[in-house]
Amino acid sequence: MKSNLEMERKIDDAEADPDKARLSQLGYKQELKRHLSMLENFAFSFSIISVLTGITTTYNTGLRYGGPVSATLGWLLVSLFNGCVALSMAEICSAYPTAGGLYYWSAKLAGHRWAPLASWITGWFNIVGQWAGTTSIDFSLAQMVQVIILLSTGGANGGGYLASKYVVLGCYAAFLIIHGIINSVSVKWVSFFCQLGAIWNVIGVFLLTILIPAVATKKASPEFVFAHFNAENDVGIHNKFYIFVLGLLMSQYSMGGYDTSVHMSEETKNADINGPKGIINSVAISTIVGYIYLISITFAVRDIPYLLRSDNDAGGYAIAEVFFLVFKDRYGSGVGGIICLGFAAIAVFFCGLTSVTSNSRMTYAFARDGAMPFSSLWCKVNKEEVPRNAVWLALAVSFCMALTSLGSLVAFQAMVSIATIGLYIAYALPIFFRVTLGRQSFVPGPFSLGRWGIFCGWVAVIWVAVITVLFSLPVAYPIKKDTLNYTPIAVGGLFILILSSWVFSARHWFRGPIRNIQ
């Protein structure tokens, strides 16, 4: 009789809370507060993708390597293949809606024999990629604030204040602390800021899309925007195809981070449906909004070599110089351009905030499965049901990563390169297992690609393999210690560390995701 009553109680609980029941089936008890809607889940990914952040901070790369063609055509090319990655991730997310996300998927899809190793490699690439992502975003925000102050005090040619690397690092630390404080309170407040960030991104893009071309006294022709290829650069590369593929980094960097919808799934209602929707909608809308923003800004570009020169008013920060000159040419003052740059900086702030949120959930989930040193500390949640310890661990690691900027910006760029390559490797691994070892055993959730799942998955895996090679190529010739692309060293070094830790330690005790509920 007692057994029957317990069974009936479990059935009633499952009917009352299907999300909790599904999470129990996956092996975990509900510890985080689940109240996010599909719109709120979408807002997290949309805010961290933040095309206003990605394009604004990497526009120099697009102009230097190919110019308008690399920017506009490259955006469409990257969006096409990136869409396949997002769709494949959405399908797997629907089957396994857990905060651990990618590493949990790898464990389930690689089969019992390979599950621990697959989970270990995927998880560490994911978590380190996220730490590097936070470093990249918040450090870019600190640099943008430096440029705003420089222009506001007279510019590089007018005696403006140029902050030292120590001041920039201090500013960066301040942003990390603010993001940590906000992420330590109730997820309702974090969700509010993320929704505000999503709205800010949309409004900001359309405001700048209308304002910059409208204020510009001289505009580029459609032929320039869509067909001009900039082969002139100061990096010694002259092969057009080579230049073009290097220019794709701007678009690829701008479209990362949508695994946030996955890591927020244990706090999302109807996660097996709303999680995939958050991924797909954030990528689709970001693709459209980003392309509009990119085209409108490029219409205000005239002299590419001048925009990239370090002796212009913005110190070589191309998009800041575009904004500044547009208003200066029209009104005799570049104040309007500085305000526009400030608007973009606020979007970067929201992007960094969301990045920390995603970091903390991934850290919490990975620690919950015992994969990290002092795991019991990082998987604790406070009375607000927030993994506060995981939040501050992510911030501490991100700060340490930025310390490399004091020694060499080249070393720092190598560190943050993991934010793009490392993160996409983590995206590709579970998809690879889905189309190979898990092809027959995979049981899709409510969102399924059907017969297109295998094709889409292979396209996604091949694309990640291609960009991993392309973005590891030299970015300047002749190759010297100051021009060497350290990306393959950073990513390869990370892989060696992960594999070595497995061989010498983790293989003896790590068994992949651990059930914490019967």
Q: Topology as H/E string?
A: HHHHHHHHHHHHHHHHHHHHHHH
Strand content: under 5%
Please tally the β strands and state the result: 0
Tell me the structural class: mainly alpha
The best one-word shape is globular
Number of helices: 23
InterPro entries: AA/rel_permease1
Family: Belongs to the amino acid-polyamine-organocation (APC) superfamily. Amino acid/choline transporter (ACT) (TC 2.A.3.4) family.
Main location: membrane
Keywords: Amino-acid transport, Membrane, Transmembrane, Transmembrane helix, Transport
What's the SSE blueprint?
Blueprint: H1 2-16, H2 18-25, H3 38-49, H4 51-64, H5 68-95, H6 102-109, H7 111-152, H8 165-183, H9 187-215, H10 222-227, H11 240-254, H12 260-263, H13 271-298, H14 304-308, H15 318-331, H16 335-368, H17 375-378, H18 388-402, H19 404-407, H20 409-416, H21 421-435, H22 452-470, H23 487-504
Helix pairs in contact: 1-2, 3-9, 3-13, 3-16, 4-11, 4-16, 5-11, 5-13, 5-21, 5-22, 6-7, 6-21, 7-8, 7-16, 7-18, 7-21, 7-23, 8-16, 8-18, 9-13, 9-16, 15-16, 16-18, 21-22
Provide an overview of this structure:
By secondary structure, this protein is mainly alpha-helical. Helices cover 70% and strands 0% of the residues. Helix 3 (38-49) runs parallel beside helix 13, helix 6 (102-109) packs parallel to helix 21 (421-435) and helix 8 packs antiparallel against helix 18 (388-402). It starts with a helix and ends in a 14-residue tail after the last helix.
Based on the model shown, name its key terms:
518 residues; mainly alpha; 70% helix; 0% strand; transmembrane; AA/rel_permease1; transport; membrane; Amino-acid permease BAT1 homolog
